[in-house]
Amino acid sequence: MTENRANSTAPVTAPQHSVEGFVKEFLRELHFGQGVTLERASVNDEYLALARTVREYLMARWLETVRRQRDAQAKSVAYLSAEYLLGRQLDNALIATDMTEIVEEGLASLGIELSTLREQEVEPGLGNGGLGRLAACFVDSLATMSVPCIGYGIRYEYGIFRQTFVDGFQVEQADTWLTLGAPWEFPHPEAAVTVHFGGSTERYTDDDGVERTRWVPAWDVLGVPYNYMVPGYQNGRVNTLRLWSARATKAFDLAIFNSGEYVDAVRAQTFAENISKVLYPEDSTPQGKELRLQQQYFFVACSIRDFVDNVLPADFDLHNLPDRIIFQLNDTHPVIAVPELMRILVDEKKWDWDEAWAVTQKCFAYTCHTLLPEALEVWPVALLGKLLPRHLEIIYRINDDFLAEVAQRYPGDELRLRRMSIIAEYPERSVRMAFLATVAGAKVNGVAALHSQLLRDKVLPDFSEYWPDKFTNVTNGVTPRRFVRLANPALSELITDAIGPGWLTDLARLREMEPLADDAEFREKFRAVKAHNKQRLSALLQRRDGITLPGDAMLDVMVKRLHEYKRQTLKVLHIVSLYERIISGELDPTSIPPRVFAFGAKAAPGYKMAKQTIALINHVGRVVNDDPRVKGALTVVFPPNYNVTLAETLIPAADLSEQISLAGKEASGTGNMKFALNGALTIGTDDGANVEIRELVGDENFFLFGLVEPEVDALVTAGYHPSSYYEENPTLRRAIDRIASGAFAGGDRTVFEPIVSNLLHEDRFLVLADFQAYLDAQDRVDAAYRDTEAWTRSAILNVARSGYFSSDRAMWDYIDRIWHSQPLAAR
Ligand code: 26W
């Protein structure tokens, strides 16, 4: 039957790659897909028809890629990530298929502008920040490199909240990204898998007389897969991203419906479907909420089930699993996959424990994305045991075996056992997910050189001593397709004119541009690109938010999640200090280059200090922008709802990239890479990937300031007293006093009092200690900016020397150091 079907399958062919072919297909989609005529079509009708037309061009490639991967049975990467911050799909698909011109022309012939339809797309914001965007860059690279990969995650019905400002304060709104239609997804309800929760475990003797355990769950949900295309860049490949959506199971409702409790049954349905309802907006402070653990187990259980039952051939011997798969754990969020695979092998497949553990240990690798101790996930044993009783038993057994091994290597070292135990006893008995991932993973990596070093030395020192070879570094990267080609077409054209198009898949080739930094004509063109991008940004902000940018100013940008360790407050103090020095007559505003300070940042809804900081930026902005004494010299803008789409217009326009986290706190950063690749200079601390950026672009093209990590450590150990900086530095004191005076809150001293008193009495992230160094570095920025030719030269060198930060390179590093998989042979 299957044989016959395979033989009789007609080849799937894409529509004709021409303007006429496109127009025909587009109108067909409009008529038969949307059910409207061109005269009556809304912008949304046209957008949906366009999206469906473009995906038809990808379809043949997708089916072919899946078939080839199946045939080859090559080792695949399963990227397990609770977040994918994809950004808009349309333009990326057009670039991947090289269709932009055809589509532009075809639509124009119908009187439609492509740019209007582009703006209709609501981006899928299924992630919080860097970690989610990294996952999206990685799957893009793997598709472009023809490496077999499935991305697994959650199809949240509501992604990261939409941010609005009311009187300068953040107000969150639900992100209803699905309401106008979701043309990029392919739901497969028929392929749903069942996931169990709760209940208890019981011992029994199997047919062979072996004592075994089984899980008797209490309730279950269905996971419905939604497939998304991940097109490689003009290489004919399309990989799959499979996101899971929760539905109530039939059995579940039947039981309750039959009991006559109709309303309860419907409520139970809602309960099940809650699991994939909303993305947790917390970035770096895990909340330990039951629903979050449900989400984690839900998507991981669906994914492993899917891989074992659907991706592998029916007769596959699971002893060979490590030859076919590596599950890459994107932070600790999917780590519950470890006991899940053990449960399948031991309880369902009836393997011996040791046999199962040997295989499991080869199937996982773990990436850590943080250094903040409070960001390391722990799950209370009480909660985990209630939701996943069998998994808890398995974790205990893994821990017992592991600690027995450690005890053998370090006899009598009780303290070490306590330190290394996967189970923490204080303040509450709980499972340390990072430890579980480290014990189970074949490899553990950090995301920048400095981070990987600190991970070994500070976060997991006992483990790196125990398994020195387990630890490795892979510095993050970003996809040049989205963050240069798509976001910055003008620069892309300039680069391609200069060195040819090869750089887009081999970013190291940007080096070939280096000599052009000394070519006056090229510098002129480079500046024209920047100016063009600033105009484009200016037009967008006017349209989007009614924000007017001044004509000719340095664009100084800080965009990232709002977090104390990232130190947006330090930037505010810089602005307030300049403002205060100008209005007090100390600083002549015409003596400094005019600057626009642009911010973009969402705060976790429950993070008070972060939300206050947002309000402070907005309030400072209002006062500064309205004061004629600084008009033209200082402008503060903070467009709400910073997301991937806004980043794509903001980053290419930037002159200065603010990367000012406290040294030793930012694991890597990836925004820093996007800015450098788009020709901004960085002002930054010696932190995360800033270290590597500076090494590559050169000291003279980077504004370094601030304490280095060992100095931070020493200062904190010695006892840090922020108020002494306040007392000893009049510039700092005047800036803080101005905030404290209520000058930015209509005279009300209470509004920003928490920020002021936090800075003076706690200042966990050493803002005051780095203040003067930051101001001095900003003076160097001003001086450098005045020499236009030298600045442009530095900007060009930033682009030319940042090719290392391609996510393609990062993927090769994962392949070499962690996965040991191979790209599919070229056709
Ligand atoms: C609620 C729990 C939680 C904890 C951590 C949610 C999300 C996180 C993420 C790890 C936060 C995050 O995005 N981390 C960032 O990951 C980037 C990609 O590696 C790095 O570049 C950033 O430095 C790191 O902060």
Automatic annotation (TrEMBL):
<protein>
    <recommendedName>
        <fullName>Alpha-1,4 glucan phosphorylase</fullName>
        <ecNumber>2.4.1.1</ecNumber>
    </recommendedName>
</protein>
<comment type="similarity">
    <text>Belongs to the glycogen phosphorylase family.</text>
</comment>
<comment type="function">
    <text>Phosphorylase is an important allosteric enzyme in carbohydrate metabolism. Enzymes from different sources differ in their regulatory mechanisms and in their natural substrates. However, all known phosphorylases share catalytic and structural properties.</text>
</comment>
<dbReference type="Pfam" id="PF00343">
    <property type="entry name" value="Phosphorylase"/>
</dbReference>
<comment type="function">
    <text>Allosteric enzyme that catalyzes the rate-limiting step in glycogen catabolism, the phosphorolytic cleavage of glycogen to produce glucose-1-phosphate, and plays a central role in maintaining cellular and organismal glucose homeostasis.</text>
</comment>
<keyword id="KW-0119">Carbohydrate metabolism</keyword>
<keyword id="KW-0328">Glycosyltransferase</keyword>
<keyword id="KW-0808">Transferase</keyword>
<dbReference type="InterPro" id="IPR000811">
    <property type="entry name" value="Glyco_trans_35"/>
</dbReference>
<keyword id="KW-0663">Pyridoxal phosphate</keyword>
<dbReference type="InterPro" id="IPR035090">
    <property type="entry name" value="Pyridoxal_P_attach_site"/>
</dbReference>
<dbReference type="InterPro" id="IPR011833">
    <property type="entry name" value="Glycg_phsphrylas"/>
</dbReference>
